[in-house]
Amino acid sequence: MKSTLSHMLALLCAGLCAYAPLSSSAADRVPLLVYTALETDQIKAYKESFEKAYPDVEIKWVRDSTGIITAKLLAEKANPQADVVMGVAASSLALMDAEGMLLPYKPKGYEQLNPKYVDTKAVPSWVGMDVFGATICFNTVEAKKMNLPKPETWKDLTKPIYKGKIVMPNPASSGTGYFDVTAWLQLFGEQGGWKYMDALHENIAQYMHSGSKPCKSAGSGEFPIGISFEYRGNQVKNSGAPIELVFPKEGLGWEIEATGIMKTTKKLDAAKKLADWSASKDANELYQKNFAIVANTAVHKPPTGLPANYEEMLIKNDFAFAAKNRDKILTEWNKRYDAKSEPK
């Protein structure tokens, strides 16, 4: 009897001992609220890779377009909800840093990151992940039907032949749209930039609330020309759509997808783990499946489907200008052009 009782107790203990760590692990898993503008077809792979490396942390995404996420973060300034911002435009993170919302942190492996794609302070408030730049998606089949020539420059898009044939992202809601506008203001000067956009506006059919949608619309033939970014352009082209990617000769606007920790997070250890992972070689290898240029210098391969000199085509971008003048630029843009924005 004593032997049977001992055996039962041993079995019970073994069961409890096997169960206890699982229960504790599940209970101790830290939910990390991450605001992001990453494309929906990217975030699943990023989440899986991070949580495999750090199984004690679970990412809870809040996803929207760059402009919406930026506005949400600024609106919540007095009572921030997010722990980390990841995959949001560097100009937006620079703006939040100026507002005192980000915690300076140098992630593990920082020395491997290209200094062109990180915050310039000794202890950075944000670090880059990857670079996305402008492209024009040109539907060759629809263009042939309409007898439209292929544009070669930004200024070509102001020619009367393209009236009503162009769609582009709304800069108030799309990071792609915002870097287009700030690039034109830098390329052509402030007065020349608004004059250019006035002329382009005559040919715009609609401003869309996504950086991807104009290229998807060009790919489907809804409109023959969509101003977008190279990742989505390559994806639409590789899906079999009859589009060519045009990289205007004046130079390309661009942005950095970046990561920063919110100063108010109560989950700092978990937030640092995500920042460390974001800067890692493993993470950058995932980014490079989507983008030609990534921040980690240990990860590099020639761009696929892009000009060999693609990186040289990117304009010298003033992120401080884009951050500091965001409200002023968007107010002016809305006043002039918002009447052609698609309904929200």
TrEMBL record:
Gene3D superfamilies: Periplasmic binding protein-like II. It holds the Pfam family SBP_bac_6. InterPro entries: ABC_2-AEP-bd, Ferric-bd. Residues 1-26 form the signal peptide. Keywords: Signal. SUPFAM superfamilies: Periplasmic binding protein-like II (SSF53850). This is 2-aminoethylphosphonate ABC transporter substrate-binding protein. It comes from Herbaspirillum rhizosphaerae. It comes from the Bacteria.
